Amino acid sequence: MATATAPEPPASEPSSGPASEPLPLDGVTVVAVEQAVSAPFATRQLADLGARVIKVERPDGGDFARGYDTAAHGLASHFVWANRGKESIALDLKDPRGREVLHGLLAGADVFVQNLAQGAAARLGLDSAALCARYPRLVAVDVSGYGPEGPYAHKRAYDMLVQCEAGLVSVTGTPEQPVKAGIPAADIAAAMYAFSGVLAALLRRGVTGRGGRVEVSMLDALAEWMGHPLHHTMHGGEQPVRTGLAHAVIAPYDAYPTADGDRVLLSVQNDREWVRLARQVLERPELADDPAYATNTARTSNREKTDAVVAEALGRLGADEAIGRLEAAGIACARLNSVAQLAGHPQLAARDRWREVGSPAGPLRALLPPIGLPGGAAPHMGAVPALGEHTEALLRALGMADAQISELRRDGVIG
Fold first, then answer.
1. What pTM was estimated for this model as a whole?
2. Distance between CA 173 and CA 175 in Å, rounded?
3. How confident is the model at residue 16 (pLDDT cuts 50, 70, 90)?
4. pLDDT band, very low/low/confident/very high, at 15 (cuts 50, 70, 90)
5. C-beta of residue 185 within 8 angstroms of C-beta of residue 191
6. Which residues, including other chains, have CB under 8 Å from residue 350's CB and lie 6 or more apart?
7. How far apart are CA 322 and CA 313, in angstroms?
8. Cα–Cα distance measured from residue 256 to residue 258, given in angstroms and rounded to the nearest whole number
9. Count of CB atoms situated within 10 Å of the CB of 257
10. Cβ proximity of 140 and 153 under 8 Å
């Protein structure tokens, strides 16, 4: 099969200022055999920075995250979040002809990312070792649950399971009940290390001329994020207790109900702040020097009484008034927002953080990526692809004739 340049992706949104620098990954091509969250979220970060990402999906349904829910105007919310700005090719990699097409794409690629079940990529000849031997300039990324060796290598690794194995669930929740994080923390941790690993490998390739392997496991990534409780336990001999929204060693540090039904979280970091809280917010100046409250050690020892006096004072105030008093006193505070309140957050609106991206269901709101590059081109926030939307264009760019494409479609090799 001839290798040709694939069609150009849509141009990034232009910057509104003077001539700007291009996005840092303009000209980088990523091929991804990915599913769920960990690899797709990593490659979406690359797409946001200008990389062209070609997403390889199964013809019979594609990335199974497409079927998680229908909350985003009929599309799956996980999929919409993690897959904007990509091109989708529906390809059966179990068929040798499908693998030939994939290698045609890899011949012109800079990065390959996969998070298939452990051993599946190797059986297809798509593990990082095999690909780097065949394509010396390729950066090849293997994202797994537990890593390529060891007793857990072939264990199923869904996000909640890895949160449990990594101990995150043991430190999250209330004293009575451990809970998993409300977001896929293990998936996101692995995604962000895969993302930064690709950037590091591309920098190294710029010096050496060679790509190389990148390995990331969900357990390794989340174990790193467990650094504070891990070191506290290993070196202090005691695991931090679960405290809900409170802090294990600081008081007051919790969310307190207000008169209008909201909850306001505050944090007193030192004894000087306690004095200001007592005098200016609680309007209980006698507590500023009371030995039962005057030091953080005393307040944590008397946590129930400390929380009670704070809750009694804030319970007389509306959330706006409570926030106003706390901010005037220089006390760190926040509203306990719902997800809907996040979607309407005034800070995000004031900083113009929202955009619209295309999708098979029409325009969808999406946040700008967190990495800002002032003076450069705007992030590439392309559409969420339909399954196999770009299959024919990519095959034609590889030099494939109409008759060949029709044959592959007839035989179910493409979708």
1. 0.91
2. 7
3. very low
4. very low
5. no
6. none
7. 9
8. 7
9. 15
10. no
The string over 330-365, giving b where at least 16 C-beta atoms fall within 10 Å of a residue's C-beta and e elsewhere, is ebebebeeeeeeeeeeeeeeeeeeebeebbeeeebe
Contact 281/339 with Cβ under 8 angstroms?
Answer: no
Q: Are 336 and 264 in contact (CB under 8 A)?
A: yes
**Helix, strand or coil for residue 188?**
helix
**Interatomic CA distance for residues 180 and 170, integer angstroms:** 8
Mean pLDDT of 120-136: 96
The whole-angstrom separation of Cα 199 and Cα 192 is 11
pLDDT of 311-320, one tens digit each?
999 999 999 9
Give, in order, the Cα–Cα distances in Å from 287 to each of 252, 292, 378, 391: 13, 8, 52, 70
Average pLDDT over the chain reads 94
User: With contact defined as beta carbons under 8 Å apart, do 62 and 387 qualify?
Assistant: yes
CA distance 380 to 211: 24
Distances (CA, A) of 373 to 49, 193, 376, 378: 9, 20, 6, 8
Other Cβ atoms less than 10 A from the Cβ of 33: the count is 23
Largest CA distance in the chain: 87
Residue 41 · residue 188 · CB < 8 Å: yes
Nearest 5 degrees, angle CA 344-CA 350-CA 352? 90
Single out the residue of 157, 151, 136 nearest to residue 216, CA to CA: 157
**Phi and psi, residue 232, nearest 5°:** -60, -45
Distances (CA, A) of 247 to 224, 270, 410: 21, 13, 61
Joined tokens for residue 18: 């003077």
pLDDT confidence band for 64 (50 / 70 / 90): very high
Mean pLDDT to the nearest integer, 34-49: 98
Question: Residue 36 corresponds to which tokens in the numbers above?
Answer: 């769920």
Confidence at residue 19, expressed as pLDDT on a 0 to 100 scale? 57
For the four alpha carbons of 198, 396, 406 and 382, in that order, the dihedral sign comes to positive
Report the pLDDT averaged over residues 200-217.
98
Distance CA 267, CA 253 (A): 4
**Burial readout 226-239 (b: 16 or more C-beta within 10 A, e: otherwise):** beebbebbeeeeee
| Interatomic CA distance for residues 399 and 402, integer angstroms | 10
Q: How many other CB atoms are found less than 10 A from the CB of residue 44?
A: 26
Nearest to 31 by CA among 90, 100, 105: 105
- Say what percent of the chain tops pLDDT 70: 95
